[in-house]
Amino acid sequence: MTTSMTPHRRSDTAEAAAGGLVMFAAALLFIAGILDLLRGIMAIADDDIYVSTPNYIFKFDLTSWGWIQLVLGVIAVIVSVGLFQRSTWARVVGVGIAGLLIIANFLSIPYYPFWSLTLIAFYAFVIWALCVVPREP
Questions:
Q1: In this predicted structure, what is the pLDDT of residue 59?
Q2: Average pLDDT value for residue range 45-58
Q3: 3-class SS at 53?
Q4: Contact, 34 vs 77, CB < 8 A?
Q5: What DSSP assignment string belongs to 71-133?
Q6: Taking a C-beta distance cutoff of 8 angstroms, is the pair 122, 105 a contact?
Q7: What is the model's pTM?
């Protein structure tokens, strides 16, 4: 009984699907990063747009919160550019920044609930897409 010593290679179809999944995650991260960037600008420019929630445990100055959203959105856009170039560092940082943005959007649910929940879903998909695809050789 002999066993083959050749390394297992993924099929071309599986590699194409994995590459497509990463590109979709990159596009989603780019779009969601732009949306967070714009949300940060809205909070900095005019925080009267946001709903006031007097009994929420996590209370923030909305101008400061706007700067946080702005910075995280810019980082997400930069990381998405790295993902479009298939950089390994971008996959690692992409998971991290998407996780931070999930936390940021969770904390801002009382101010913009539908928007926050939508972006949480986007970032959760980005994390899934970047973690499920095997590392390229």
A1: 63
A2: 62
A3: coil
A4: yes
A5: HHHHHHHHHHHHHHTT-HHHHHHHHHHHHHHHHHHHHTTTTSHHHHHHHHHHHHHHHHHHHHS
A6: no
A7: 0.76
Q: Can you give the pLDDT at residue 86?
A: 87
89 close to 82: Cβ distance less than 8 angstroms: yes
Q: Which two tokens stand for residue 106?
A: 């969770």
CA separation (Å) from 104 to 79, 92, 112, 123, 125? 17, 19, 12, 11, 16
**Would you list the domain boundaries of the chain?**
27-50+58-132
CA geometry: angle at 13 spanning 10 and 17, to 5°?
A: 100
Phi and psi angles of residue 123, each rounded to the nearest 5 degrees, phi first: -70, -35
Nearest CA-CA partner of 70 in 103, 95, 38: 38
Cα–Cα distance for residue pair 100/94, rounded to 1 Å: 10
Compute the average pLDDT of residues 56-67. 72
Element (H, E) at 19: helix 12-45
Q: What distance in Å separates the CA atoms of residue 99 and residue 109, rounded to the nearest whole number?
A: 16
User: How open is the CA angle 93-107-60, to the nearest 5 degrees?
Assistant: 115
> Which has more pLDDT, 27 or 9?
27
